[in-house]
Each structure stands twice: as C-alpha cells, then as structure tokens.
Amino acid sequence: MGLLLSFQSLAMTKQSETRNEIDFWLKTIPQLITLRPMPSKDGHFPDPAVRRGFQQRLLRWYARYRRDLPWRKTSDPYKILVSEVMLQQTQVDRVIPKYKEFLRKYPSIEELAGASVRDVEATWRPLGYNIRPVRLHAIAKEAVRRRGGKLPDSLEELQTLKGVGRYTAGAVMSFAFRKDAAILDTNVMRLLHRVFLGPGDPKRSKATKRLWDLSAALIPKGRGYDFNQALMDFGAMVCTARLPACPTCPMRQICVSYPWTPDRNSRNRTGRSRRSVKEGSS
Ligand code: SF4
Q1: Co-location of 270 and 133 in the same domain
Q2: pLDDT digits 0-9 by tens, 210-253
Q3: In this structure, is residue 111 part of a structural domain?
Q4: Are 93 and 162 within one domain?
Q5: Which helix (H) or strand (E) holds 140?
Q6: Distance from the CA of 254 to the center of ligand 1, in angstroms?
Q7: Is 256 in the pocket of ligand 1 (CB under 6 A)?
Q8: pTM over 0.85
Q9: DSSP state of 195
Q10: Same domain, 170 and 239
Q11: Which atom of ligand 1 is nearest to the CA of 256?
Q12: Which of 61, 126, 202, 266 is deepest in the core (most CB within 10 A)?
C-alpha cells in the first residue's frame, strides 16, 4: 500500500513538473516569435533588435502624430527652461497660454533677472507651486551675474541650479543644446515600464534607476531631440495612465504589458502610483 502511494505521488510530481514546463513554453514562445522583451528582473537591457524595434516604431509614430507645442519652435535655452519649469506638475494645456504670456513679458533672461520677484510671481499665477517662479527668477539673476546671461550647458552644472533636477537638466540638454541626454518624466516612466518591465508601479525606487538607464540606452545616436519629444508625446497620447490605446498601439508586438488592463496592473502593483519625479524640491 505504502509503495503504491509513493508511486502515485511520484507520478503527480512528474505531472505537475510537466505542466509547469508547458506553461513556461506557452508564455515564452510567443515572446520569442514577436520579439517581445522578457520582463527584466536583473536590470539587463533589451537586446538590440528589440531596442531598434522600439526606436523605429516610436519615431515613425512621432513623425505622423507629434504635438505642435510652442516650446518646440525655439532652441533658446532660457525659453526651454521656462517651459520645463512650468511643465513640472502642470498639464500642457494650462502651460501653453502662460508660457506665451510669460515670454511676452520677459522675452530674455536679462529681462527676467531685471524684474522684481513679486512681479514674476504675479505673472506666474494661477499656475501654482509658487516656489517655481521664485527659483526661475533666482536662476536668471545668477546667470546674468555670473555667466553673462548664459545657462550652463552640462548636465552636472544645470543640476546645481535650485529647482533644476535630473529631468529638467536632461530636457534642457536635449531640447536646447541638442545633446543625447536622457529624460524621465511621469509619462516616459510609465511607457518604458510597461513596454520593457511589465505592468506595475514605475515609481518604485529600484525601478526608477533602471528606467533612467533604459531611457539613456534607448536613445538612437544623434536623435536625442526627436526621440525624447516622441517619448513624451507617446506617453501622453497613446500609453496614457488610465486608458492606454493598446489595441491600436504600434508597440503592441514588443510590449510586455500588452494588453494592459487596470486589473492586471493592480495585481502586480507593489506600491502607489503617483508622480515621484519631484524636481521643485531639489
Ligand atoms: S501596448 Fe498598451 S501598454 Fe504597451 S505601450 Fe502600447 S498602449 Fe502602452
């Protein structure tokens, strides 16, 4: 009787191992066939073919659907910095009219530096987070006093300015100085996390470092400007927070989260999902 039970349990173990193996290959084969990157647990980047696939899809999409935004019509570092500081924690639609008004009033960094901080704060209203105009004004004064009205053109130096964190510095380097610098705002975080790491919370501190590395590694050489603008547009227009357009998304063959559903996200979530790239406090 004992021997019979041992045979039965051995057979059951074998069955469950076989089932596990079948499950594994059922999940893996479609990923191998469609170039879909495996969810990376060790921080390794996707292989070059997947990287290229992502770059090509993104830039093709951007050529067709990119947004027409006023700060994309200039390469003046001052104007780009104004737009980036305004965009911290504020939606594009609210920023556009204020950006135009602000630059009508302070068309150059010298004019901003020469204004009173009270006047600058009043012009900023009602955008909110009122420490931002104060810091922008201080940056302008320092640039005029110490740098002949010029903003620094290196990531490190830009981040020494109060209120300029890694994201804003990357955006200024990329959009004003046309360097291949990485960016990672909320939209880009969400997009890269879903495509390469899977559903879940992109704000986990471990994931944040990997996402910065990914954002840098994905930039096609010499195309940082378009690529970064495209990342932001795609995150804002296609891979949105609550209702991503998965059925028509050009990334669906390579996205490890496809098809994304709120349900699937919350099952895999380990933390809360709110913007954590706070630069106003740096
Ligand atoms: S398939 Fe869905 S989750 Fe993946 S990138 Fe596209 S919209 Fe985002």
Answers
A1: no
A2: 999 999 999 999 999 999 999 999 999 999 999 999 999 999 99
A3: yes
A4: yes
A5: helix 131-147
A6: 9
A7: no
A8: no
A9: I
A10: no
A11: 4
A12: 202
